Description:
The structure holds two protein chains of two kinds.
Chain A: H1 12-28, E1 43-48, H2 53-65, E2 69-74, H3 86-96, E3 100-105, H4 110-117, E4 123-129, H5 135-150, E5 163-167, H6 174-185, E6 189-193, E7 208-211, H7 214-219, E8 224-227, H8 233-236, H9 243-250, H10 254-259, E9 265-267, H11 280-283, H12 290-309
Parallel strand pairs in A: 1-2, 1-3, 3-4, 5-6, 5-8, 6-7, 8-9
Helix pairs in contact in A: 1-5, 1-12, 2-12, 5-6, 5-12
Chain B: E1 2-6, E2 18-21, E3 24-26, E4 33-36, E5 41-44, E6 46-51, H1 64-73, E7 76-81, H2 92-105, E8 109-112, H3 128-133, E9 140-141, H4 151-162, E10 167-170, E11 183-184, H5 187-192, E12 196-197, H6 199-216, E13 220-222, H7 228-239, E14 244-248, H8 250-254, H9 276-288, E15 293-294, H10 323-332, H11 339-353, E16 371-381, E17 400-410, E18 413-417, E19 420-421, H12 424-434
Parallel strand pairs in B: 1-4, 6-7, 7-8, 9-10, 10-13, 11-12, 13-14, 14-15
Antiparallel strand pairs in B: 1-2, 2-3, 5-16, 16-17, 17-18, 18-19
Helix pairs in contact in B: 4-6, 6-7, 7-9
Amino acid sequence: MRHLLSTKDVSRDEAIAILDIAEDMADVAHREVKKLPTLRGKTVVNLFFEDSTRTRVSFEVAAKRLSADVINFSAKGSSVSKGESLKDTAQTLAAMGADAVVIRHGASGAPRVLADSGWIDAGIVNAGDGTHEHPTQALLDAFTIRKRLHGAGSRGRGLDGVSVAIVGDILHSRVARSNLWLLTTLGATVQLVAPATLLPVSTAGWPATVTYDLDAAIDAGPDVVMMLRIQAERMNAAFFPNAREYSKQWGLDDERVGRLPAASIVMHPGPMNRGLEISSGAADSAQSTVLEQVANGVSIRMAVLYHLLSGTTEA
Amino acid sequence: MSIKIVGAQLPDGTSQDLFVENGVFVDEGSAESTIDASGLIALPGLVDLHTHLREPGFEQSETVLTGSRAAAIGGFTAVFAMANTLPVQDTAGVVEQVQSLGDQHGYVTVRPIGAVTAGLSGERLAEIGAMAQSRAKVRVFSDDGQCVHDALLMRRALEYVTTFGGVVAQHAQDPRLTIGAQMNEGALSNELGLAGWPAVAEESIIARDVLLAQHVGARLHVCHVSTAGSVDVIRWAKARGVDVTAEVTPHHLLLTEELVRGYDSRFKVNPPLRRDEDVHALREALADGTIDIVATDHAPHPVEAKDCAWDEAANGMVGLESALSVVHASVVESGLLGWTDVARVLSSKPAQIGRLDGYDSPFAIGSAANLTLYDPAASRTFATTHLRGKGVNSPYLGRQLPGRVVTTIHNGYLTVSDGELVDADTVARDGAARG
């Protein structure tokens, strides 16, 4: 694997290999010296055209734990300019000798453009592009699910037979897209739950079932309920009337959590809107994996950088 | 200048020697030069009802001269220049300037299109009468790039343009349904995470406009029809007797949205590339006459406007140089259209819609000598070396395309000879001599 652009391109074997490497990386976090020499001398650039402190810090910690040199490059435009162009930035980074570029961009496909452009010869990691994909989020979600279900016996396993309900703004969610491909590749079944306005007009070709009814989805007893963040601007664009109605129909409140099987887990990629798509009770419950997801994010990103840069898996 | 063309096959399949003298076809004469056209098809000079020449205002993208050269190498002898220049072609002065630049360069007849609304703002009518009565004698009015979306303003435009024997060429796109739109809306836009441009945003405007045109008894032309649903609406309108004509671009006849998959912005265009079903419906509509003409929507952009992420890239493709080959590949090779049909959809009919004289009886003795000689047996891997305008944003680069324009004659003088442009000074001199 040279780049990680989309989970759609990731095979089951590759995905399990990354999850297994992440298991090893997670062990590093429990050592006294949380550092491996693996990527010493390699340069990883965090190229963020959009603000995301959480994701950037997660990648930064991951790269540093592998002893890579990390450069944070914030290319966000000011109010007067559109910001530096992707091409100029890429060529600048190439001139500096970047080995891997972790890119977050507001435009769908920007990481792919970077990978195909010939402007830079570095491994590209998609850290979220527009409303397209966020592959490392899906990998860390899969890792989290696997860990909860199989604990120390996780290595080598997929997610066969696991049922996952993804709830919320499917239409605009890169997290939903990446999870859809990855979870189904690993053998899970996915149900999408949202109002019709927040579902794509066509889900033809998507390996998922679709329902508008969260209560029915809850009562089916899914192994995993994954809540997505709702953006305030969706209300103003008439996707739904107001927060109260959304919360009532599609929010994971205490009562709905109570109806889930005790073994079901509740996930959220963060940052959460407590009281809107998820209640505090649900977010802080024993079933919630919100903080594990954050911790696992570092392990997964270490695994991805290792996988791309160590050269051992180069085809 | 007098030219004898020997052995060309006319669109109807017959062979006939052609004599050109003093700008018109003549019976026969003593030619100064002879062109051996055996194996070539003689088509009437092609007419493009939808070209963006970009001058004045966007000379980094194209000029009247460079766009005219791109047209000539593509076999065109007349182009209609869209109004979205800067300043906008919304006054007599600007349209006269564009027309005179075209005349001065001489590669093709340049007919300026006037804006429907002042500054393309969609708020109040442009000086349509002044443009119609100017030296440029504008007959086609369009806000192309923008839709005349206000229903009342569209009604008034249709009525007012009728006063001057003109036509409104509508860019059918509901602006509210296409906010931020990046590609055809459907399963693929959903997968790629690109904001959708739904077919209904085009079809609903066409439906409204054909009803308006019927109500006020006006002529309507629909630009770049791109969906199967639009074809149904236009077919229905024509059956009702609405005076509507429609165009399709070469790229909508050949390319589908699948090309967007790699986020290569050369394939970003408005209206967007659609589904395979749409492409087939458009081809059939062109064959059965529901769609009247092919028009290029030649839209040159500087390299930096395309060298970026998909969302940030400009819409548009260059198309003049490749149009005839793409029509050949998409509808002639598939047997849907013969060469007489090609002559109709790329020459006589667009001229008729645009009220351009001299194209109604091709090759007739005494009529203007506009023609192109086309080698249908040629095949080439299309490349930037085949482009003659400033833009290199062609979606066909690297693609195998049939055919090649060998000769273009505009008003009786050569603009393309042996497959290459005649130099600008010679063309300008020959054009000036023709007056």
